[in-house]
Amino acid sequence: MKLEFQSAPRPADLDLSQWMDWTWQLRASLKTKADFASYFELSSEETHAFEKGSEIFNVRATPYYASLASQKAAQDPIRRILMPHEKELFDPSQSQLDPLGERKASNHPTSRIVHRYSDRVLFLITDICSVYCRYCTRKHFTGSDQAFVKKNEYEDALAYIKKTTGIREVILSGGDPLTVSDGQLERVLHDLRSIDHVEIIRIGSRMPVVAPMRMTDDLVRIIKKHKPVFLMTHFNHPRELTQEAVEALDRVVDNGIPVMNQMVLLNGVNNHAAIVQALSRRLLFLRVKPYYMFQCDPSIGTDYLRTTIEDSLEIQKELWGHLSGLAMPNLSVDIPNGGGKVYYSPQFETEVSAQGRKFTGWDGVQAEYINPDPTSIIKPLDYELYLDEWNHLRASKNQLNRE
Ligand code: SF4
């Protein structure tokens, strides 16, 4: 069956050039109850959520993204991502404002830097997004009216990255870093590229999903100029892969910019193996590597959108063996309170002994992997050549504390 992609349903009275202008999409975003009620038939639960105003996480969606959701069915998967629900106000099982521990002093050396892992930092260049996903894990920062990073915060962030020479990778995040202007983004990329030890830059963005017209030729040129830059997209459902998204991804990939996707498993949105495979196969066809399948974090107000870890494991097990390794995203759970990531894979091991391990494979094949003689194991002759670099990287997070 040939994979096909549909255009988003543009309103009949709207000019194509306006629809395809990302700045118009941001300006015309739906933000208030009246905006949403003019397009959607609101359910009583959604209406109640809007009426709670400040108690609810910010609400916003571009007209393009709203057009992908059902106007009538409140249970529509895309609508569940963008529309507030009164269940956000009740959090019976677990509820954390900062599930990734990003605000802990030890992980937060400057106001816009999160340094959780040795070799990489998050640089939060804006708190603004073009959609406020109901499951957002960074509600302590996202949509907090701080906008583009201020001059002093920017200088503090750059100084930290420059001084911490073990940092190899900077992840531009937020908020959504592609909501800033081309000029602002170019300056950030230029300044990061002028730091010798920064090897990789990642841009994590929902814009290819909620406003794919953002991926203009100018933007792609800017990103390409500062290579290597990886674009981390955030498609959660196959219906988000419209013809507009396909053309945006083509522009990016054709210019040699690697693209990887991070999805979040969400209750009533994509928690079925058929949906995950549909999304993953289409992404791979578009040359986007499905990278993560995240367990939804217990961020405040997200209980109704979370799956159980057992459900997530079951989905992963169903996919295993049927989906190409290239299309298979890594199931990953962030341990609450900032405990770091844990990867899961289906358990096929049935017995462990000194001489090896026994397995039953995904389609029932039983076999044993027998270890070689342990006394035959040697270290590579030249490993010491790389030891300094390895030790420096491992120590980077504590580098400033020791100085
Ligand atoms: S785009 Fe990302 S940062 Fe913004 S609300 Fe959605 S998940 Fe949160």
UniProtKB/TrEMBL annotation:
The entry's keywords: 4Fe-4S, Iron, Iron-sulfur, Isomerase, Metal-binding, Pyridoxal phosphate, S-adenosyl-L-methionine
Residue stretches making up the Radical SAM core domain: 115-341
Cofactor(s), names only, from the UniProt record: [4Fe-4S] cluster; pyridoxal 5'-phosphate
Record-listed N6-(pyridoxal phosphate)lysine modification sites: 341
Top-rank lineage group of the source organism: Bacteria
GO molecular function, one term: isomerase activity
Spans traversing the lipid bilayer: none
Residues annotated to bind [4Fe-4S] cluster: 129, 133, 136
Family: Belongs to the radical SAM superfamily. KamA family.
Name of this chain's protein: Lysine 2,3-aminomutase
